[in-house]
Amino acid sequence: MTKIKNMEEFAALSGISRPTVSKYFHDPDSVRPTTRARIEEALEQFDYRPNIYAVNQNRKLTKNIGIVVPYLADPFFAEIARYLEQSCIAAGYRPFLFSSHGEQKLENEILDGLQSLKPAGVLLAPLGRISDKSAIEKFCASVPTVLFDSNLDGLGAAFIGSDNFSFVSQTVEYMTRTGEPPSFFEMRTPANPNANKRRKAYVDVMDRLGFEPHVIKIEGTGWAFEEIGRKGALKALDERKLRTDSVLCSNDRLAIGFLAACFEQGIRVGRKDDCTLRVASNDDHPFAKFTCPSLTTAAHDYDNVAARSVETLFELIENGGKFESRTETLFPARLVLRESA
Amino acid sequence: MTKIKNMEEFAALSGISRPTVSKYFHDPDSVRPTTRARIEEALEQFDYRPNIYAVNQNRKLTKNIGIVVPYLADPFFAEIARYLEQSCIAAGYRPFLFSSHGEQKLENEILDGLQSLKPAGVLLAPLGRISDKSAIEKFCASVPTVLFDSNLDGLGAAFIGSDNFSFVSQTVEYMTRTGEPPSFFEMRTPANPNANKRRKAYVDVMDRLGFEPHVIKIEGTGWAFEEIGRKGALKALDERKLRTDSVLCSNDRLAIGFLAACFEQGIRVGRKDDCTLRVASNDDHPFAKFTCPSLTTAAHDYDNVAARSVETLFELIENGGKFESRTETLFPARLVLRESA
DNA sequence: ATCTAAAATTAACGCGCGTAAAGTTTTTAT
DNA sequence: ATAAAAACTTTACGCGCGTTAATTTTAGAT
After folding, report:
1. Please, which residues bridge with residue A160 across strands?
2. Residues 6+ apart with CB under 8 A from B1
3. Is nucleic acid strand C under 7 Å from B52's C-beta?
4. Count H helices, E strands: chain A?
5. Environment class of residue A27 by beta-carbon count within 10 Å: exposed (0-12), middle (13-18) or buried (19+)?
6. Residue A186: which residues within 8 A CB-CB, separation 6 or more?
């Protein structure tokens, strides 16, 4: 097994000229089947691969794709990232995954570093409220970018996410139909723009159903939602803030904290006879199945959001990085009935 | 704001020769303070950055560092990855994060792709049992690699992880001291080598304390530990496999499933009077605080494992990629008492 | 066997930067 | 002030590959 230094050498060993070999690596189907066979034969024998730095220096467009999520320690984003990664690989691209870890500074640094990677495109789930909009706008101007999960008005070539109204209307209607209308439990200053849309949807749906909306806003900042939810729930329970026996949490991570607080307080949650409270939520977090009781929630259409995001990005890339107009695609939720409501 | 094309152009605009500018980017302290100032002044004015592809093509060693974890949807690894990333950045390196998603094929592909990135070093938490040892060995031969979390005998230049004996001895001793000796709850064919060490430690400690070890092995493969734990627990409870009122789970994700199963069955877990079962575990998963009841567990020394891992890798890099001998560093656990035991 | 379109070869340039050598200027020490 | 050391400038080559233009070979059809 000789060590190959460069394409010149490999071309010589395979008996094919370098430009043809170069062409092969760009697109194996662009060469004659016989020469392709000869190259691939040599490839197995000598284990050569083009120097990606030399390749990317000379190609106008790299095969790199950046994937940026706001908080990777949230398994929801880890799952989505997994799907996005695999779709990129399947399409012959090279995904690079980054997490902003909830910090604006880091999000900016990631976008900064991403620029020098000269990616063909970027899939960005921004931090949301605390994102540096102007920095993101500048970034999007120079790199084809598709936003997902969190929409920022007008930024990126397209947005793909979930239809928050569909989430909340389904959970509210279900709870109302099978019991009492829920209060809405959320952070006072949510990081994610979806939270605001969910609150609005809650108020709308309650109005429409003829009930008075009741929003419980809890304190806390950052991304430790479970702890924030737990503390907020303890306080709300202590102060008897709930107007009915039903609560709808803005998202599952808050609900996880809420359920932990209920358990601590000996409050039985669920629809069984001995239960005094029903808790539902939104997202269908990977752990929602393992809360006690298991969490009734509105599930993201993970697969479609992820699939459409990469699809859209590929279209964008093939379109030269620009769309005629910015599109927003929203996928509806699927209600997942479990034990908590 | 003119658009700069290359270093030549930037050098001209800053009034400094290109080789000096190049030197500056390699190490800002290697040029005279006055010239450094002039360069940085121009830098603010013109926003130029070297083309990383051209840079990396010519430098013997890149500033890239690969971070590979077995399963990023596990918040434990997400948290560790976060720390590793930040340490790399602080040291002037460029971390690239990859997850094997529990698949050998993917782990191999990641290492494969990593080679062409020509990283200065790699931090690798391998899949464990299902890792392709020969592939990893080959990789380590050509890239300076430090293993963490999961040890594979003899692979990598060093290993940094947790002392499984310390984990299990603390939990077993605690449970025994304050109640009955625990059974050990684990997967029959665990993916992670730590699991085997924990079982051995359990048997050892039980023997030493004069109790008969009792290991409950449950079925299931893959990385959906919570569901495996839940199903296994339902079966074990149904078949009355437990010899005492105490269970020690091999890891927290299994324990999360175990607790969910107990809740479903109406079994009260904890140390209160009305409880009939105590459950403890190992890892201190980020969600362990929010299980019902909250989980008593032995915590990894996250910070030290992560810090020592990057430290070791940097030493390795400065050492030219080779150590005299392979070292294994283990950090002890810290017992975290919560409500479940 | 002959023609033609497709594919491969040869030759050569450029990408942006690292880096080395030789000469010049600036700084530091005496 | 002077010498030595340090830093900078100029010049030039090389890295590995993309890409183009001109030429030759090959394949499929008549």
Report:
1. A148, A329
2. B45, B46, B47
3. no
4. 12, 12
5. exposed
6. A195, A198, A199, A215, A216, A217, A218, A249, A250, A254
| Strand C positions closer than 7 A to protein CB | 7-12, 14-21, 27
Express each pLDDT in B8-58 by its tens digit: 999 999 999 999 999 999 999 999 999 999 999 999 999 899 999 999 998
- C-alpha–C-alpha distance, residues B85 and B310, integer Å: 9
Residue B225 contacts A where some CB pair is shorter than 8 Å: no
The two structure tokens encoding residue B249: 């789970």
Terminal-residue alpha carbon distance, chain A = 64
Domains and CATH numbers, chain A: 7-50 (no CATH), 64-162+303-332 (3.40.50.2300), 164-299 (3.40.50.2300)
A32 touches strand C (CB under 7 A): yes
A161-185 pLDDT, tens digit per residue, is 999 999 999 999 999 999 999 999 9
Q: pTM for the whole thing? A: 0.92
Query: What tokens does B192 get?
Result: 């992670």
Å: B314 CA to C24 C1' = 39
| Chain-chain contact of A292 with B292 (C-beta, under 8 angstroms) | yes
Most B-contacting residue of A290, A291, A295 (CB-CB within 10 A), to test interface: A290
Which residue has 């963490």 as its token pair? B148
Q: Pick the residue with more confidence: B97 or B91? A: B97
Q: Supply the DSSP string of A164-207, one letter for each residue.
A: HHHHHHHHHHHHHHHSPPPEEEEESS-SSHHHHHHHHHHHHHHH
